[in-house]
Design brief:
By secondary structure, the chain is mainly β. The protein has one helix at residues 154-157; strands spanning 16-18, 45-47, 52-59, 72-73, 85-87, 92-95, 98-103, 113-115, 117-119, 129-136, 143-151, 164-169, 176-184, 188-196, 203-209, 213-218, 221-227, 242-250, 266-279, 290-291, 293-294, 300-302, 311-314, 323-329, 332-337, 340-343, 352-355, 364-368, 374-377, 383-385, 394-397, 407-408.
Length: 410
């Protein structure tokens, strides 16, 4: 592994809109030599109101051994981040419908601990889509489990030029979940977000990735968004194929060198890993269509005929509650009602529908959420909020949750 140099992006050219910045050292960047029913998503297809995802690859871990046609198992210490584990095949088993990676207090190869790592390099990679896994991590001092991806061109360009997408990282006994991307922009650069959950239980960890953005999700709740459009801040690495990695490091620069040996052996459980591709026919924003938007309060968004700030409080949808979706280019849309455009007002005041022409403040990134809702992100990189119908709508939220999610044509 290689030590990672953190570079904070604080200029006006900042690349991401997100909750918080993740500070972490990452995993092995060498070219490699690998059930909660209520949370399950249909493994054959995810259908959303504005996009469809179809399953293209998965491992359900229902067998008795790791599928060698899908995974490589790494062996040895990666020699980065001051980690203290020795990876070996015997620390990875498939049993009871789960993949189980075990960390042990065991001296092998000059390292005081053993653990497991597997990846799909040379066997499977994907460019864009939804990449998800149901995972339970053990939470002990010194642990560093991860579900992540590296660019397949790492062997020719190296790290971080190949890019890295961390879908899940968690350390020690913390309930903080880290989602991060790494790339090269005048040095090793990283940026990401965090959320909290009881990590010592099964949760669904995912990214949704296209040529415009990468979004991070826990249990289908969005918590961070990365703008990667048009090579902004040299993020072109994320327009290439990536392969998948699962591992559990022990000790290192991120979790520290203190290890609770009394907690070992400790297991990381993976129920499944699934990869979906977006279906282009019918996918994306419904350009040229007139739609309605219904908020979390089950009421409709209204343009208020351009006479006042917009609200989400109408029980029926008439002319003022209908919006034409216009292609603004560069993956963005404009919303037009009664011949006037919706404006985010750049987040400085409640949003309106009173502009006769559309410019930056009248353009939005259309985001398809995993539960079938959509979110709208303004040019200020904040999300449009229905404010649950209790007050005028805004474009000021840094994350998209219930009030920032809308159902289309329902």
């Amino acid at each position: 592994m290689k030590a990672r140099l953190l570079k904070f992006l604080t200029s006006t050219g900042i690349v991401l809109a997100l909750v918080t910045m993740a500070i972490s050292c990452k995993k092995d960047a060498r070219a490699p030599s690998t059930n909660v029913p209520a949370l399950k998503i249909d493994k054959s297809e995810i259908t959303q109101s504005a996009v469809s995802y179809q399953l293209i690859w998965s491992d359900e871990f229902n067998g008795t051994s790791v599928d060698g046609s899908k995974w490589n198992i790494d062996v040895g210490n990666p020699n980065v981040n001051n980690e203290k584990e020795y990876y070996q095949a015997s620390n990875i088993v498939e049993t009871g419908g789960n993949l189980v990676i075990t960390a042990r207090n065991q001296n092998v190869g000059g390292q005081p601990y053993t653990s497991g790592k597997m990846e799909t390099s040379g066997k499977f990679s994907t460019q864009y889509g939804r990449i998800e896994a149901k995972i339970q991590v053990p939470e002990f001092q010194g642990s560093w489990p991860a579900f992540w991806m590296l660019g397949t061109n790492i062997g020719s360009v190296g790290w971080p030029q190949c890019g890295e997408i961390d879908i899940l990282e968690q350390i020690n006994t913390s309930n903080t979940i880290y989602g991060t991307i790494h790339w090269f922009d005048n040095g090793n650069t990283q940026y990401g977000g965090t959320t909290s959950t009881n990590a010592n239980a099964f949760h669904l960890y995912a990214v949704q990735w296209d040529n415009q953005s990468i979004t991070w999700w826990v249990d289908n709740n969005l918590y961070a968004t990365a703008n990667i459009a048009n090579n902004i801040n040299n993020t072109g690495a994320f327009q290439n194929p990536f392969y998948i990695i699962l591992n559990m490091a022990v000790a290192g620069d991120f979790p520290g060198q203190t290890v609770n040996t009394g907690a070992l052996p400790a297991n990381m459980y993976v129920d499944y890993v699934r990869v979906y591709k977006g279906v282009t026919s019918g996918g994306g924003p419904p350009i040229g269509q007139t739609i309605t938007l219904k908020g979390n309060n089950n009421l409709y968004v209204s343009g208020e005929n351009g006479t006042q700030a917009m609200n989400c409080n109408r029980t029926t949808a008439q002319a003022w509650e209908q919006f034409l979706v216009v292609d603004a280019g560069n993956g963005k849309v404009e919303l037009q009602s009664m011949s006037k455009y919706v404006s985010s007002e750049n987040g400085l005041q409640p949003i309106t529908c009173n502009r006769t022409t559309a410019q930056g403040w009248e353009q939005f990134t259309w985001i398809n959420n995993a539960d079938g809702t959509i979110s709208l992100q303004g040019s200020n990189n904040d999300f449009v909020s229905s404010e649950n119908g209790a007050q005028a709508m805004t474009c000021t939220r840094t994350t998209a949750q219930a009030w920032e999610e809308f159902r289309v044509n329902q």
